[in-house]
Amino acid sequence: MTEGILPKHASADLVPLEEERVVVERLRNGDRAAFAILYGWYGDRIYRQAILPRLPNRELAEDCLKDTFRTALEKIESFQLVDRSIFFWLRRIAVNKAIDVHRAQQRDRALADAVQADPEPLTQAPARPDRGLEVRDTAREVETSLERMNPRYAEALRLRLIEGRSREECAETFGVTVGNFDVILHRAAQAFRKVYPP
Fold first, then answer.
1. Closest to 28 (Cα-Cα) out of 78, 66, 71
2. 23-32, 70-79, 179-188: which range is least confident on average?
3. Average pLDDT over residues 162-187
4. Three-class secondary structure of residue 31 per DSSP
5. What whole-number distance in Å separates Cα of residue 127 and Cα of residue 4?
6. Nearest to 87 by CA among 107, 102, 69, 112
7. Under DSSP, is residue 83 helix (H, G, I), strand (E, B) or coil?
8. Are 68 and 97 in contact (CB under 8 A)?
9. Residue 61, exposed/middle/buried by CB under 10 A (0-12, 13-18, 19+)?
């Protein structure tokens, strides 16, 4: 591998641009074996350098890596064949996804903490005549949505958000670490958003 064919500012372990271009063209022509080649070249490096530093939970980081390469495969037509390794394009996708997952996890945790700290935040508002019906309808929609979900995810949401149990209690109930329970709760919240009525 000679310096002349390396992308600017890249380290010497990037694949020569000529080889990358061949694989990109194969991907664009629907050759799925080329995807495995691309992943073999840069999967571990993207994971270690772009995702794990921003998303130190291994399960979330692994999910993020899968999403990164899935998105790359879906958007390979938009990749511009220039004098720069595809690694940098993949890295940008990975960084954006890692940041999004991190923010979503923070929002889910903040929501769970807010519900636990104030499980009935609306009780101080002036009562409306139809308030009881609205609450019952919402409760029914929530329960119906939970029944349509993976039972493990539904249980995580019930324990943490409905029953207001602490993260530690929930983790103990699930037989996992608190960090792993946070991953389960994050995935459960994502799943709930897909099934709850808009």
1. 78
2. 179-188
3. 86
4. coil
5. 74
6. 69
7. coil
8. yes
9. buried
Cα distances (Å, whole numbers) of residue 127 to 112, 115, 135: 25, 20, 12
Among 189, 117, 133, smallest CA distance to 156 is for 189
Six token digits for residue 196 = 């709850």
Return d(Cα 186, Cα 117) in angstroms, integer. 19
Distance CA 35, CA 73 (A): 8
Token code pair at residue 172: 């103990």
5, 88, 105: which is closest to 45 by C-alpha?
88
* Cβ pair 197, 186 in contact under 8 A: no
pLDDT digits (tens, 9 = 90+) for 45-59: 999 999 999 988 888
pTM for the model = 0.55
Instruction: Output the six-digit token pair for 136.
Output: 């019952």
Tell me, rounded to whole angstroms, the distance of Cα 83 from its chain centroid: 31
Domains of the chain, CATH where assigned? 3-105 (1.10.1740.10), 124-195 (1.10.10.10)
Q: How far apart are CA 74 and CA 65, in angstroms?
A: 14
